[in-house]
Specification:
mainly alpha; Arc Repressor Mutant, subunit A; two-stranded antiparallel sheet; 2 strands; DNA-binding
DNA sequence: AATTGCTTCAACCGCAACCCT
DNA sequence: TAGGGTTGCGGTTGAAGCAAT
């Protein structure tokens, strides 16, 4: 029985043979796919159009990057998933050459388990209840709130109606997304925060910029390609923040972190540019920045409610994450 | 060597959104 | 506006491969 779209056809199912692949590749490279429903017939395949499309997108496309995921890709998946949840197609857009199916499989077969091993709920990215006490004991970390503090990149602010990002924004840009809300006196993230893998804050008073985006956790993640030691080693939600001199950054970076340095420098550069834009905007109109933006509300929605969890940044609901 | 259990990932399914007439 | 066709997406399945016994 085939799909409803091709139920009248006699279609083959299951794995594709090399011959079928060759037929499909030959046809699409010379004619393009056009209407997928007509591809099987024109390409001489006994498959349904849907199957052809899937095979092309997930396996035969020439721009696909095969092979295992790099630690950087892994980190990006985790960080974007933290924002978007199981929106694999959107996540895959941040990983050139990767398909949603590939990302989904990698998540289910690998990342999910690693997060669980770290005591993190793969759906919410929060600490699992059973691991909270363990982490307190293991890391000397302490927090006195009934709700876990999610690791979401952005926390809530009802006045935040602007962002220069949308769902098509590459994650490198997204990472450098600076706060634009006027409530924040320090709307951008200092470079040393981006480059310091140990830059964490005990609460929002210590780091106002963390209200808008925990870029610190992202950057520390990027600087930590293994990707799964942030909780245990850095205790990313607590600990003391010790700004480093920029000139000492390079020395502090591990060899694998050096690989990411260009990206981080680019991020820092973008932050500085946005900082300049921000200052300019503020001078022109304190309120205008929310009007003329290309803000994507779909992004906003998914940002604010990742996996049904949500961090309310109300002052009445602060956490005491003391070490 | 045979069996069993586990993991991975390609492929399928069903649904929703979109497009066209 | 309605309806049919197409496309895109996320969840699920099951075959293949591998490791343990």
């Amino acid at each position: 029985m085939g799909h409803h779209c091709c139920s009248k056809q006699k279609v083959k199912r299951g794995l594709w043979s090399p011959e079928e692949d060759e037929k499909l590749v030959n046809y699409i490279t010379t004619h393009g796919h056009g209407s997928w429903s007509s591809v099987p017939k024109l390409a001489g395949l006994q498959r349904c159009g849907k199957s052809c499309r899937l095979r092309w997108i997930n396996y035969l496309r020439p721009d696909l990057k095969r092979g295992s995921f790099s630690s950087q890709e892994e980190r990006i998946i985790i960080d974007v998933h933290r924002i978007l949840g199981n929106r694999w197609a959107q996540i895959a857009k941040h990983l050139p050459g990767r398909t949603d199916n590939e990302v989904k499989n990698f998540w289910n077969s690998c990342i999910k388990k690693k997060l669980l091993a770290q005591g993190l709920d793969p759906n919410t990215h929060n600490l699992l209840p059973s691991h909270k006490t363990n982490n307190i004991h293991n890391n000397g970390c302490n927090f006195s709130h009934s709700n876990p503090k999610p690791t979401s990149l952005f926390s809530v602010n009802s006045q935040m109606t602007d962002a220069s990002v949308n769902m098509n924004t590459p994650f490198s840009t997204l990472l450098s997304f600076p706060p634009t809300d006027n409530n924040f006196s320090s709307p951008t993230i200092p470079i040393y925060e981006l480059l310091n893998p140990n830059a964490v804050w005990t609460n929002q008073e210590q780091n106002p910029s963390s209200l808008m985006g925990s870029a610190s956790s992202v950057s520390s993640s990027l600087l930590n390609p293994s990707g799964f030691d942030s909780v245990q080693e850095n205790c990313m939600w607590s600990g003391s923040f010790q700004p480093m001199e920029i000139t000492k950054q390079d020395e502090m970076l591990q060899p694998e972190q050096q690989v990411l340095k260009p990206q981080l420098e680019m991020m820092a550069s973008e932050v500085e540019m946005k900082k300049a834009d921000k200052l300019s905007d503020e001078q022109n109109n304190m309120d205008a920045s929310f009007v003329n933006s290309n803000f994507d509300f779909d992004f906003m929605e998914s940002t604010l409610m990742p996996c049904g969890t949500f961090y309310n940044a109300s002052p009445m609901d602060q956490f005491a994450w003391d070490c």
